[in-house]
Write a structure and sequence with these properties.
This protein has helices at residues 4-12, 14-19, 23-39, 48-59, 69-82, 86-95, 100-103, 111-126, 135-139, 145-167, 172-183, 191-204, 207-218, 223-230, 234-260, 264-276, 278-291. By secondary structure, it is mostly helical.
Length: 293
């Protein structure tokens, strides 16, 4: 009897294959894992060799996932969806896309818009994009598909809102005015430097920090939803957001200090005033930046 699963794993991720022991033992282990993964999706069949072929490169990556039933089940379903299996797509909708309404709950969108976003997310994840394969297969296997759906849905909804605003020719100055309300806390001679510094600070922030700030303060994504997206505890998201705010405001303060040369105590007083209303400040200042893009 051959060892096709072990053979494919050994060819694509040798270290992972060796960790499973002798070829016969590894074959038994992989067979059991694939069988249990398939059982998660009754009636949706995928060749176990194809599942291992899709999963193995992840094991050879710098940050390999654990070889688990849950991870293989995600890959199993992803492969079936990619080939156009209607039962698999229905199962994907039920298991993962059902999170979309919850992810968008804070945006006050119509039911029709939420459903449209849901359909767009499905296409973005399950269909290839140019020479790039379907994104669902890139993320499957790590237990993060629900988080991927949440992030994709939120970004899609924000993009849609911006597009609708442009199409309706809403003046950008309305959003800028919201930012100016918060800038009214700042002395007139500092406003230009503060605006420029804040924009530069946001641009220089890490990708995660920018996403966290925009999703939470502009997108209305809750701390609990962010925790699910990033597969971390809510307290971790709270720390991340606090650190992101401090980083952005710190860099903004440095820019203002360099540009204006104001007395340190005056700058400290001004920034404490803005930071004391931090949620309003970040939301309006981010909105001001977005409106001028």
């Amino acid at each position: 009897m051959g060892t096709p699963l072990q053979d494919r794993l050994a060819a694509l991720a040798p270290e992972a294959a060796r960790a499973l022991g002798e070829p016969a033992v590894a074959e038994d282990t992989l067979t059991t894992l694939c069988r249990e993964a398939a059982a998660a999706w009754p009636g949706i069949s995928v060749d176990p060799v194809a599942v291992i072929e899709a999963f193995a490169p992840k094991l050879a990556a710098d940050d390999p996932p654990a070889l688990t039933v849950a991870g293989l089940a995600e890959v199993h379903l992803a492969l079936a969806c990619i080939r156009g299996d209607n039962a698999a797509i229905t199962a994907f909708d039920r298991a993962f896309l059902d999170v979309v309404p919850h992810a968008l709950a804070g945006m006050k969108l119509t039911a029709a818009t939420v459903e449209d976003v849901r359909a767009t997310v499905r296409d973005k994840l399950l269909l290839p994009e140019g020479e790039r394969g379907p994104r669902v297969l890139e993320y499957a296997g790590r237990g993060r598909l629900r988080g991927l759906v949440q992030v994709t849905a939120t970004r899609t909804a924000i993009d849609r809102i911006r597009l609708e605003e442009r199409e309706a020719e809403l003046p950008a100055r309305e959003l800028a005015a919201a930012g100016d309300l918060e800038l009214s806390l700042i002395k007139a001679q500092y406003r230009a430097a503060f605006s420029a510094g804040f924009a530069r600070a946001v641009a220089a922030a890490s990708r995660r920090d920018r996403n966290l700030l925009r999703l939470h303060f502009l997108g209305g994504v809750t701390l609990e939803q962010l925790a699910q997206m990033y597969s971390v505890h809510r307290a971790t998201v709270v720390r991340w957001l606090a650190a992101a705010r401090e980083t952005v405001f710190g860099a903004t303060r440095d820019h203002v200090a360099e540009t204006i040369g104001a007395p340190p105590e005056e700058l400290d007083e001004m920034f404490e005033l803005v930071k004391s209303r931090v949620e309003l400040s970040v939301e309006r200042l981010l909105a001001s930046i977005e409106s001028h893009r």
